Amino acid sequence: MTNPRSTGPADVRNSGELRLTYPVWMFSVADFDGAYRTPDARMALVIRLARESVERDWGGPFGAAVFEADSGRLVSVGVNSVLRLANSLWHAEVMALAMAHTRLKSHTLAAPGLPAHELVTSCEPCAMCLGATLWSGVRTLMCGATRADAEALGFDEGPVTEASYAHLAARGIEIVREIRREDARTVLEAYRARGGVIY
Amino acid sequence: MTNPRSTGPADVRNSGELRLTYPVWMFSVADFDGAYRTPDARMALVIRLARESVERDWGGPFGAAVFEADSGRLVSVGVNSVLRLANSLWHAEVMALAMAHTRLKSHTLAAPGLPAHELVTSCEPCAMCLGATLWSGVRTLMCGATRADAEALGFDEGPVTEASYAHLAARGIEIVREIRREDARTVLEAYRARGGVIY
């Protein structure tokens, strides 16, 4: 360390902290005490999270959650919070994965001693979220609405191709798509009907 | 809100918060009061951040920063903090972008009234970071070491192809690669020589 120490301008010292917490309303939707045993039940939760986000004007029409794959125990949830929290990272999937890491205190959800984990999302992930899925250690990715459904609203999903999914599959991640797709798509359309911002 | 309110299990209530702050040592490396006017100076900073991370056993051998493109003012920095903070999200680029959003209080760094921003990274981004770059609003992405350099160490970069870069370019993001590549690669090799964890 040869440089003289600098603590930087005041706004870096004062705002150089990022925080992420659950909105209080999420605890009235997500049941952290219960078990979501079926694919349908898990997808129903994330679609409900997406719908509540739209109806509460919280953010984009997307929800996600991490479950223990076998027991169905809910580990973490996420809703799109890009506009609300002024941060382009906070897609629903990234928020759910971030909170899963925070809760389990592990950089990988596939750490020795942990059960297998599953990421469930109300819409096929964008390029960022697909990459985050790969690094998170989840063993399954389950999706509701499709990329085409999101793009029909004007959302850009970024550089994701079938080869992207194949990359995850080759690394042992099971991919399950179009679970309750119509229900999930209905939320996208509700967002558009309310004049939700496409960004 | 029709469900009875639940605040969830104690560990969700107590650990349901994610925090990210700069390590104190970063303020002795990054000069938030100065200007980094040239591509070389900007890349030299992120390579130094990567090297300090390795020498301090902080994390993976990667550094990144966001600058105002024209003035060279430093907006935010990041170093790989996946292991240190037990969170697979905290690649150097994602950390730098997250802190830029936090400082500028905007979900896009291309908001009206803001100057153009540039993301500089010591190594070509993985799939997650490339997607995050796209959503962040930066106008330029500058890279040091290549994907092949990272993969030679055993790091997986995920599903990134030349088409991925073309997707960003088509949306107006200028891509500049192999700036001080050899210097950046030297840090990767230093990490390997110290027996750094590949994850």
Structure description:
Two copies of one chain form a homodimer. Chain A has about 200 residues and is of the alpha/beta class. The first copy, chain A, has one domain (about 20-195): Cytidine Deaminase, domain 2, CATH 3.40.140. In chain A, about 40% of the residues lie in helices and about 15% in strands. Chain A is built from seven helices and six strands, in the order αβαββαβαβααβα. Chain A has helices at about 10-15, 40-55, 90-105, 125-135, 145-155, 160-170, 180-195, and strands spanning about 15-20, 65-70, 75-80, 115-125, 140-145, 175. In chain A, strands 3-2-4-5-6 form a five-stranded mixed sheet, sandwiched between helices. In chain A, helix 2 (about 40-55) packs parallel to helix 7 (about 180-195) and helix 3 (about 90-105) packs parallel to helix 4. The radius of gyration of chain A is 17 Å and the shape is globular. Residues about 1-5 of chain A have low confidence and may be disordered. Chains A and B meet through helix 1, strand 1, helix 3, helix 4 and helix 6 of A and helix 1, strand 1, helix 3, helix 4 and helix 6 of B.
